[in-house]
């Protein structure tokens, strides 16, 4: 089990290759609006997160996650 700061750092490092606009990534950064990710990018990124943390994020959970902070919280909950 990790603490939230470590999970946050790992998630943000995984965002970097997908961050084509070089946006400063914060907890409030939104995937669709700020990073301008399309659905294919989201699917690729979710697969990366699932592999990294050995978790499964359902489609319903994905639909509720809009920001980086929400993703970190979801990963923390699923990995616990």
Features:
80 residues; mainly alpha; Non-ribosomal Peptide Synthetase Peptidyl Carrier Protein, Chain A; 4 helices; globular
What does this structure look like?
This protein has helices at residues 4-15, 39-53, 59-64, 68-79. The chain is mainly alpha-helical and 80 residues long. The mean pLDDT is 94.
Classified in CATH, the superfamily is ACP-like
Backbone CA Rg:
11 Å
The largest sheet, given as strand count, sense and whether it forms a barrel, is: none
Question: What order do the SSEs take from the amino end to the carboxyl end, as H and E?
Answer: HHHH
Summing up helix and strand content along with how strands pair, one would put the structural category as mainly alpha
Q: Write the CATH architecture name.
A: Orthogonal Bundle
Give the helix proportion (percent range).
55-70%
Task: Please write the CATH class name.
Answer: Mainly Alpha
Mean pLDDT: 94
Extended strand count: 0
Number of DSSP helical runs: 4
Distance between the termini: 6 Å
Which range does the strand content fall in?
under 5%
Which descriptor suits the 3D outline?
Answer: globular
Total domains: 1
């Amino acid at each position: 089990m990790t603490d939230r700061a470590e999970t946050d750092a790992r998630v943000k490092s995984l965002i970097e290759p997908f961050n084509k606009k070089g946006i400063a990534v914060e907890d409030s950064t939104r995937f669709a609006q700020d990073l301008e990710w399309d659905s294919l990018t989201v699917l690729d990124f979710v697969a990366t997160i699932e592999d990294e943390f050995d978790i499964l994020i359902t489609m319903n959970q994905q639909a509720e996650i809009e920001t980086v902070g929400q993703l970190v919280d979801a990963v923390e909950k699923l990995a616990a």
